[in-house]
Amino acid sequence: MATIDAGENRQVLHGVSPLTDHDVYLFRQGRHFRLYEKLGAHVMVAGGVSGVHFAVWAPNARAVSVIGDFNGWRHGVHSLHSRADGCGVWEGFIPGVAAGAHYKYHLTSQNGHYQVEKADPFALRSEMPPRTASIVWGLEYDWGDTQWMQRRAQANALNAPMSIYETHLGSWRRVPEEGNRSLSYRELADQLVKYAREMNFTHVELLPVTEHPFYGSWGYQTTGYLAPTARYGMPQDFMHLVDRLHQNNIGVILDWVPSHFPTDEHGLVYFDGTYLFEHADPKRGYHPEWSSSIFNYGRHEVRSILISSALFWLDKYHADGLRVDAVASMLYLDYARQPGEWIPNEHGGKEDIEAVQFLRDLNEAVYRDHPDTQMIAEESTAWPMVSRPTWLGGLGFGMKWNMGWMHDTLHYFSRDPVYRKYHHDQLTFSIWYAFNENFVLPFSHDEVVHGKGSLLARMPGDDWQKFANLRLLFGYMYAHPGKKLLFMGGEFGQWREWNHDQSLDWHLLEHAPHQGVQRWIRDLNRCYRAESALFRRDFDAGGFEWVDLHDWEQSVVSFLRKGDDPDEVILVVCNLTPVPHTNYRVGVPCGGFWRELLNSDASVYGGSGQGNLGGAPADPLPAHGRSHSLSLTLPPLGVIYLKAPPAHDR
Fold this sequence. Notes:
CATH class of the domain at 21-135: Mainly Beta
Mean pLDDT: 95
Radius of gyration: 27 Å
Structural class: alpha/beta
């Protein structure tokens, strides 16, 4: 076998080169964030000979060799050598191997008793599950999204509209005529892109596409940190999907999972015969809720590897952001553990200091290298300053999911309207903390699984009331401060829970009530994107003002959303009971004709058609501490948006 030593002159293809001394220094310091250019399998030319350079981190192995379809899967034929600098990387050049070759690493532990075949953690492509081999591959692709990339800083800005369609690629739409198969990346590039554009979503968020052995994990049990799952096509096919979304002015957010990893033998667990990526003590290294392993964030090399994975998707796949899964499980040493099942930190507390530092390093690296992207935390506790800069003591995320708002809102809406007045504060409380973080309002996949029922099924009342409640819920969501996220199926009123083995129930759109919900979401997205008062000051308390939060007896709330321009004002009124109100007076800050932008009870959405005939004039009658007021018809279980007149018409 030909090997490459540190002094050999070499020609490198695609900008790839073996580890330099500086690379090793950064790797061991936990500061090398482009390891995808160094580790793994890279096609190159050495000494005029074409082949593949392999490099894998296995510091405690006694022997490592590459096995594959090019050597009959026999270990020892192509042995790697351990670098003399002690960084733990084994590497070697195998001439004649080319893109498309299947391979794994065969590792022998120090005592020789443990021998295992591992997939390459830095493989760019994997075999179709349930097979687990890695595939030598390159990432050449002719991108067509230049215009998007030039303007995406504006599209991803904190003061931009962000309406996110959360999607599981394997079950969004299937082909029953072909054994109920999932759509491919390229089919999704036609169908999903067209649908998201027609529905006026600004972004699509994909449940993890990183390779995962168990389909039922939805991608959250990751083994391939640089490889999009082979279930739907090749890496370039996934690039094509991202490219097409960008060409249609739709951003792409990827779910990314650094919080834990599965115990499948071909993955990271007990990688070189030691607890390399995970903690050895199960009180820190084993996740009791997900039966998975927890990364050792205190190990410098592990931090380098994980942050390199994050940057890889932004760099090579043009992702516009990462939604980091299960951040709370990383922050707390006692997460999902009983007393005595966890180890306190050095100060005796429950905070995972090493994980905190990892998250700060991660966010600093992302915003340094890709300042036009966003990092979004799924964090379900009251940990302070999750979406505040690290230099202020925050974790450095750009945004955080508002789990409190989601839970309170769904609990409130699931109640019979007769009893809602006794729980009025469950709806209004969220404003007290709405600006503590940069919040995303999520109705995600987690809310429509595990016996919770679909959003529509959780609404009270008969079918008409269920649909009206759902439209009201969405209308309230789009008016509330914060970016928006809706899981697929909710936008047309899926009746049953999400099932990852089946397509969404698209046939429901043959029925008018479901068509109405879909049109309502489409129009909400259109209005939300067009009216800067609804998004410009999402994270600024000055962008929101209560008109009346005290009408608990009638279960009515009214508030103003305001933009940067003082003339940009929208009044939102929610009637949370099936009893319509006529001549309901609401105070407003100016005179003139207030135009009705949206009414969830309009007949085109499946409502009863009650409303204000396009708007209402403001009378010089004081109400709610304001100089003028509107006399409105509030439709049953309905929400209305009214826009203030321009200054010259007041």
